[in-house]
Amino acid sequence: MTGNLTLRSDDRMHFIIINADGSVRAYIYKDKGGDGIRINNGVDGGGDFILRKDGGFTLGSGAQIAPNGDILGGVWGSSWLSSAIAIRDNNINGRATIDWVNQNFI
After folding, report:
1. Residues in domain Tail fibre protein gp37 trimerization region (predicted)?
2. What is the rounded CA–CA span in Å between residue 32 and residue 59?
3. Of the given ranges (3-7, 15-19, 23-27, 52-56), which has the lowest mean pLDDT?
4. Phi and psi torsions of 59, nearest 5°
5. What is the pTM of this model?
6. What b/e readout covers 28-57, taking b as 16+ CB neighbours within 10 angstroms?
């Protein structure tokens, strides 16, 4: 095939990749007014991958990459990476400094 493939409609239209046995390998679609372009892994599972309109990216697992580059995921306590780093930094800043120890204990 050469040229463009155009699907014209205000309704959901899928671009579908199907295996020889008829099972769906992948769906690619975008709803009018929806949150972005969705890619579904078909029979292999894994959920929808979403290229969001705001520039972010959502993985099938639910993890996200924000437009500002921040990362949300279970490994960060189901919070944003920037929050996990801020908490760690605050814990480090709350520790006694060498100068404080020298003044109070030596």
Report:
1. 15-62
2. 21
3. 3-7
4. -85, 160
5. 0.72
6. ebbeeeeebebbbebeeeeebbbebeeebb
